[in-house]
Amino acid sequence: MTVPLPRQRQDALVVRYSAIPDAQERLSAIISRKPVLPPVPEEERVDGNLVEGCQSRVWITVEWRDEERCHFRVLAESALVRGLVALICEIYSDATPEEILAVEPDILERLGIARNLSPTRLNGVQAVHRHLVALARRCRYESPL
Hints:
Layout: H1 6-18, H2 23-32, E1 58-65, E2 69-76, H3 79-92, H4 97-102, H5 107-110, H6 119-141
Antiparallel strand pairs: 1-2
Helix pairs in contact: 2-3, 3-6
């Protein structure tokens, strides 16, 4: 089975959530969905795994496995942030560092959700993306090759 590239995964999520006609309802569906990625375990909830620039506390960790792919774990204290962060991380989890670095997340804009979020929340989403990029770069340089 081929793991989808982040762009393909993002496109599939856009198609899935575009079926919901109202942007606010789309956001509610994203927030209330069952987590796809595992949570950050208690022992990894340390300052080094906190995402800088988020209003609420968000931890993201990465594990390098499965043929040089980054596997993310995520935890956020707020339900809204947890849903948004999980969505962004889902796009990139199981991707190679190069795939992660090649794709900018535009899912919130494409779904019409970005315009319903405060600038603080949008800055937090951008901080999450920066954190994922930093983790991908670390994986790339720490690769077993």
